[in-house]
Design a protein that fits this description.
mainly alpha, 6 helices, 0% strand
Length: 158
């Protein structure tokens, strides 16, 4: 993770996970909060799965990004699709439903962004640029200077 966007996405994943922990805790305690979890059991399982995936996303594993997208897309995508279909059918929706739609949209978008960020990062990691070592390993002029100097230092033996 050499670029700022990867760091920001990972930080946002952790912040969104902490927000979902807060939603799950408030839902379990039956306290009044902005919104309630769709399914508390699935929400708790999802929190532990995402907690296990975050270190692998941090290490830029593509399978972890895809798993993150599938988990969040499956859980939040169904809610988003249901609410969008209700909007299309011109049903009246409450403000809580719109907030749930926003949170679901953020979750699904975050999964897609993670996958694309890891994919684009993998393409850059095939040919990494490191200014500290490239002058030595990728410098043909330096190799030629060493070869010419080495060829001139032939000592005769009798």
């Amino acid at each position: 993770m050499k670029n700022l966007s990867s760091w920001l996405i990972t930080i946002f994943i952790i912040m969104f996970w902490a927000f979902r922990v807060l939603v799950a805790v408030m839902g379990q305690m039956d306290a009044e909060f902005m919104l309630r979890p769709m399914d508390i059991t699935t929400e708790i399982i999802l929190l532990f799965v995402v907690l296990a995936l975050v270190p692998f996303i941090f290490k830029r594993k593509i399978w972890a990004g895809i798993a993150y997208l599938v988990v969040y897309g499956g859980y939040f995508g169904s809610n988003l699709l249901t609410n969008v279909m209700a909007m299309i059918n011109k049903e009246t929706l409450s403000s809580t439903t719109y907030l749930e739609m926003l949170i679901s949209l953020v979750a699904v978008t975050l999964g897609v962004v993670v996958v694309f960020d890891i994919l684009f990062d993998k393409a850059r990691m095939k040919n990494p640029v490191d200014k500290n070592t490239d002058w030595f390993y990728k410098n043909k002029e330096y190799d030629r200077q060493l070869d010419d100097r080495a060829d001139k230092n032939n000592y005769r033996t009798l």
